[in-house]
Every structure is written in structure tokens, then in C-alpha cells.
Design brief:
With about 150 residues, the chain is an alpha+beta fold. The chain folds into two domains: about 90 residues, no CATH class; about 40 residues. The protein is built from five helices and four strands. A hairpin with a 2-residue loop joins strand 2 and strand 3.
Amino acid sequence: MSARIEIQAGTSWPEVVREYCIESDLKNKAGEFGSVTTTAVTPFRDIAWSLASEGDVSQPVQIGDGQWAVVQLEETIPREEPEFEDVKIDVGRRLKAIREEELFLEKVAEWRQDYDVQTWPEHLMKATYAPVQREVPSVPISVGGR
């Protein structure tokens, strides 16, 4: 009998994982894989996000190296948007830095026209600003495979 059929017949997820899962870490955690975001780099991301409702179980899916997985969606956790007050100082700093960079580049362009300005880019340090990491919705899933 396949893992998916056993789950549909009412066998508990931990029991099915103990029977079918070949990956020891997942087996020891009773198939608890953790949350999967829309930007996660895992073969389980597309499987998890294809499931419509909590409790849904995927068809067996080949995940590489001859392994197959069945995924059960436990819950969908909605993304929480930060409050403006929590991000306004950081956003202000980033906007100020962007404007300062623009003004600097305008000034350099002006100097290049007026003077014989030479630059050595390999010796200049360019500050970079990392994009704001936004939390994305995640889907906790359990994974069992064979």
C-alpha cells in the first residue's frame, strides 16, 4: 500500500512516515519539514504551494536521486506586513542614501566636464544597500517519501 493511500485511509502521518520515509532526519522528526516560503529553494516548495487546503496530501512526486515524496499541508501562515512606525526610520535612511549617491554621481559628472578627472574604480569602495527582507507567507508541511 502506498503512503498516500494509507493517509487517505486514516493512518496517522507519523505512522506513515515511520513506515515509508527513508531519510533518517525526517523520520526522526515524524516528517516535520518546517515552514516553506514562496521563495524557498527546495523541491518541496512547489508541491506545498500546489495544495489547496490544510490536511491535503500531494500525489507522490519525484524529488531527484530516484526518491519520491508525499507532502501533507499542515497549515498556512499568513504574512504579516510590518507597521509603518517600525520601518519608517530604516526606509528614510535608505532613501537618503540613494539620494546622496545620485547627487554624488551628478557632481562627478559635472567635474568630469569641467576638469580632467580620473578615477580608478578598482580602488573605490562602493557602499551597497541590501533590500528589505520581507517576510513571505509560509506553509508548514510534513514530508514522507519513498
